[in-house]
Amino acid sequence: MVSIDEVARHAGVSTATVSRALSGRGHVSDSTKARVEAAAKTLGYVVSASASSLASGRTRNIGVLVPFLDRWFFSTVLSGIASALMRRGYDITLYSLTANRDERLAMFETFLRRQRVDGVIAISLELGPEETERLRELDLPVIAIGGPNPRLTTLTVDDVAVARLATEHLLALGHRAIAHIGASPEFDIDFHIPTHRRQGFEQALADAGIDVKPSLYEPADFTIEGGFRAAKQLLGKPGGRPTAIFAASDEMAIGALLAARELGYRVPEDLSVVGIDGHELGEFFRLTTVDQFPLGQGERAADAILAALEAKDAAPPQHQPGELPYELIVRGSTARLPS
Amino acid sequence: MVSIDEVARHAGVSTATVSRALSGRGHVSDSTKARVEAAAKTLGYVVSASASSLASGRTRNIGVLVPFLDRWFFSTVLSGIASALMRRGYDITLYSLTANRDERLAMFETFLRRQRVDGVIAISLELGPEETERLRELDLPVIAIGGPNPRLTTLTVDDVAVARLATEHLLALGHRAIAHIGASPEFDIDFHIPTHRRQGFEQALADAGIDVKPSLYEPADFTIEGGFRAAKQLLGKPGGRPTAIFAASDEMAIGALLAARELGYRVPEDLSVVGIDGHELGEFFRLTTVDQFPLGQGERAADAILAALEAKDAAPPQHQPGELPYELIVRGSTARLPS
DNA sequence: ATAAGAAATGTAAGCGCTTGCACTATCCTG
DNA sequence: CAGGATAGTGCAAGCGCTTACATTTCTTAT
């Protein structure tokens, strides 16, 4: 591996100048800079991450904490983070949390404490109080996406408002018997998003003067299959069949779509379905949804962490939570209730 | 941050002994080791990754190169890699390749050359010759999953055999008019897997004495939607409708399932469908498939890279390609052709 | 009992960078 | 045109570890 000394010799300057020329810190004349860059290029020199980190305390590396890697939402957010950080020359190290208590602990007590990263982004992680504390102890900028955590800088969509928007869309189409597919209680324990969505749903109904019927709520597990089963329950009930279903995720909404189809209901003529997320499959299934732009969420989180890094020396950290955008995308799965 | 000196002082030994006790290299008496570990624990000491890397040349970090983060197959493999590496105390840094030529180049010429990783795993990446060369120049162990590359140690499933297996399953059920959904030509250019699967398909037909009809081949893009469209083409052709479809991926197979349903064909009574992958949705759709255990592929790759790391000093690198397992999973989407 | 090897520990020299400080040359500003 | 600010560069001291080598102590075989 070629080292900074060789570049310095080749360019006829000191290593200090090479460092400054290549990193852009401190003053270097244009001509010297050009010479150094040329030397680096011909020699194929790339600064050693560990030597640079050790000397400077900066790693050019961001840790990303994810609860699941193989779920569409998380991998999409991660993808957004990755592309935004790469553009700025940052590396990403992945911390994938498991359900295993010990491994989870090790993540916070060991992995994150190796001084490998300049900051961390936590995706939709419902962190326990001790875990939040461990994160804060790292003394690094932390940006959390989703699951508002008052002790962390958080980028979050207003889940209550998102759910209201979806529900109000159905109400505006004349629906009154609206069912909701949310999360099972165990899920709720350490994951508040489903609860917020349910609240938004119920608020919208209440505002419209409609009673919330417990029979029109069905829990599921945020998968297509779960949504399918929940919808079958809801649609199979004799008498009070809903004319619309609001699912707390697009995957569950797609499950509901498939269930309706299997039971012989036409969508949207016999049943309207709306989801939340902006899932890639939504377009194919012509699903009306409230898009929360997960790719964009990742990019914003990346920008936010880089901003925090730059501001670190200068401004004090600001904990104002960032509000993320969302938008109702009307496709073919919702229609006016035939009168 | 607490440093090794504090631990040394606290345990009443030199820093050298602390280093040896904590890393397990060199001899340390049991009692000293216990004392050092206790001191480290009370002080909350975790070795600094950059200092350790700089001094030792080892990073305890593996680079993972992926073409897409947000496709099920890749994120699943990644998930397998992550859990296996974490168990061994390794970190993962993610190198997500984009289509952008310059960014892709930067990945190989800059990001990977920062000496941040001890080895790299490349997932199903069809690398150009120069890219392969850059990887080799890193002088690090490299394990590639899929897309056999003679210049790299590769873990690969025998795609031809997998496709044969799927096709032979249909043949054994009495099908003769079997269609194949593969990849569009542009896709094929730098991605050989679809080609191999097509070869396996055609070999199986040939072995059974059946002509390969070009009209029974339809290209798609490996998505559900693509499979849907391709199946509509295949099934819409007057006269020669196939009685079975073999899709080169589960996602396309699911698309075919949905297309069949929409056209009023019953699966498996009127049409059998088989895919490849072992996609999580396969169970829900009762899809017969050849599972290639992507989670396991990730774990194996992780094991392989760690083995290579350990063998680095001792044995010379062995380039024998690893064969990955696969298995036909028969579910409800295939049935005997009614006679 | 004793030589020879192994075990246990310490000393100190780096690993390859960054950056504070020192110095000189150049630029303003009044 | 003096005097302070700023630009451009080099020197050298670390950053926090690991490990070769040296030293001392303990085994074990003869």
Could you please describe the fold and organization of this structure?
The structure is a homodimer of 339-residue chains. In chain A, 45% of the residues lie in helices and 16% in strands. Chain A has helices at residues 4-11, 15-23, 30-43, 49-56, 72-87, 101-109, 129-137, 159-172, 185-189, 193-207, 224-236, 250-262, 294-311, and strands at residues 61-66, 91-96, 119-123, 142-145, 153-156, 178-183, 217-220, 244-247, 272-277, 288-291, 322-323, 327-329. In chain A, the strands form two sheets. In chain A, strands 2-1-3-4-5-11 form a six-stranded parallel β-sheet, covered by helices on one side. In chain A, strand 1, helix 5 (72-87) and strand 2 form a beta-alpha-beta unit. In chain A, helix 1 (4-11) crosses helix 2. The longest helix of chain A is centred in the C-terminal third of the chain and has 18 residues, at 294-311. Chain A is elongated. Chains A and B meet through helix 4, helix 5, strand 2, helix 6 and helix 11 of A and helix 4, helix 5, strand 2, helix 6 and helix 11 of B. The first copy, chain A, binds a DNA duplex (30 and 30 nucleotides) through residues 1, 3-5, 13-17, 19-20, 23, 25-29, 32, 47-48, 50-57.
